């Protein structure tokens, strides 16, 4: 303990659940429904699966350290240059890389009160000071975040939509905010759930990178693209920032399978549309349930719904588990009265609803 960096000593490990098979064994239940990690309930795309089978033949070779083909695909699809892209082993890897490249222990890092857990982890791991700004109606209070900027601020994390609240900032609000952030403060706009947002409401974030050289936009293949288990993410930034990130990045941080899978997933529009449609339907199913039962929820732009269940949220989580449904307590996000439920297939959502009704909710 004493040997660890001071920031590290204050950290608690990321709360990962037990493997499903282990839980099934312990509880004596088959087919546990997991609605806990905002994964894609469709399973992997068949096109990706076929490409992976081919890729298996090349696993004795190192992956392409530059991820040339994936960057080429992303550049074309998103209208950016290849030298603006930095790839990561999931977007978590990219978030950490950004912190390690630009932040040191004399700096402050700003994020919102109910922010994604990885932001405090990557901040404190390098000994920087985390500044959590109180939320406004569960979402980012951009004015308060601007007011929190000091001489020591180096980085601001914003997730849009936010996890675990599902709140969303309009393009206008974000653009206004970016105009007011000083040039020497980097802004990480984490758009992990952006594919679930109606196209007309999304920010032109990649175009903003040209207007705001201090902006980094992060994306992942773990959600709408269904590659959570493979770990694939990236950030688009000014080329000078990407150059610095690529100096720090481990050369083989994306493996051959995740590179190939991401290339194919990016072109699989049919799968993406299906993911979005299944999410929309499932969201409606859960929202209807909440409204029928008089449960408050935070309207969500993501692939999850965070529901206010009361002071016994942790206990309800345990009771749902006993019923074979895993959801996510969000106590660690300063939401002690809520549970976050990922959107599943219709039958999985129904299993959650049935368990709730059975438990008298
Ligand atoms: N950002 C946010 C806001 C997230 O919710 C998540 C996933 N939980 C990530 C990033 C990380 O995604 P990845 O699997 O790409 O590391």
TrEMBL record:
Residues 31-351 form the Aminotransferase class I/classII large domain. The modification N6-(pyridoxal phosphate)lysine is found at residue 223. Its cofactor is pyridoxal 5'-phosphate. It catalyses: L-histidinol phosphate + 2-oxoglutarate = 3-(imidazol-4-yl)-2-oxopropyl phosphate + L-glutamate. GO terms for biological process: L-histidine biosynthetic process. The keyword Membrane does not apply. Gene3D superfamilies: Aspartate Aminotransferase, domain 1 (3.90.1150.10), Type I PLP-dependent aspartate aminotransferase-like (Major domain) (3.40.640.10). Keywords: Amino-acid biosynthesis, Aminotransferase, Histidine biosynthesis, Pyridoxal phosphate, Transferase. Its EC number is 2.6.1.9. It holds the Pfam family Aminotran_1_2. Pathway: Amino-acid biosynthesis; L-histidine biosynthesis; L-histidine from 5-phospho-alpha-D-ribose 1-diphosphate: step 7/9. Belongs to the class-II pyridoxal-phosphate-dependent aminotransferase family. Histidinol-phosphate aminotransferase subfamily. Homodimer. This is Histidinol-phosphate aminotransferase. It comes from Idiomarina xiamenensis 10-D-4.
